[in-house]
Specification:
about 180 residues
């Protein structure tokens, strides 16, 4: 199991372009092979927002711990970090050539656009899962609207856009509000 986790997160590290949020769809796809549910993924995403550190490393540690314990968490964390340890020194060495290469810059522009699409896809899947209780985008048979969750999502988006409050505060407030509603 530890070798499988290592290989999965090594692949995520090498293929995850666009930063942590863009990598979340790849992380979910791979972690779902271990049995991760959308609810667990939502919990992981919430923790990524409030725990300091890069999203990919936090996610790797979370998934590794969940499916293989301490050693799997350590292995997953190292595996997702290995590509950066390879690519960053190479980039620093060839930075001037890379910045002048027209074709590479065009490719990177396309990757940026794809990254934005991946981020929106993860947000859409989380809203489907949390607000509509849909586990699979192709299976809407068990659709049941969770008005509390949808209300909190809309409220948080409105507050963020209107008042530009720090997202960490909004995540904590959402958790408290959801907890209060659950207790009532």
């Amino acid at each position: 199991m530890i070798i499988k986790i290592f290989l999965v997160f090594l692949k995520i590290g090498f293929l995850g372009f666009g930063g942590g949020y863009a990598m979340l769809s790849l992380i979910y796809h791979e972690a779902s092979k271990f049995g991760m549910t959308m609810a667990q993924f939502a919990d992981m995403n919430a923790l990524d927002g409030i725990i300091p550190g890069p999203i990919a490393i936090n996610s790797a540690t979370y998934v590794g711990q969940m499916y293989g314990g301490f050693w799997a968490a350590l292995v997953a964390t190292v595996a997702v970090s290995v590509p950066s340890m390879i690519f960053v020194p190479l980039y620093v060495k060839y930075e001037a050539k890379i910045n002048k290469n027209y074709y590479l810059n065009q490719i990177l522009s396309c990757i940026k656009a794809a990254s934005v699409g991946l981020i929106f896809a993860v947000a859409f899947l989380l809203i489907l899962s949390i607000g509509l209780n849909v586990e699979n985008i192709f299976n809407w048979q068990h659709l049941s609207i969770n008005y509390t969750s949808l209300g909190i999502i809309v409220l948080v988006i409105f507050i963020y856009l209107r008042y530009e409050i720090n997202p960490i505060i909004l995540i904590l407030a959402s958790g408290l509000l959801g907890g209060l509603v659950y207790l009532i």
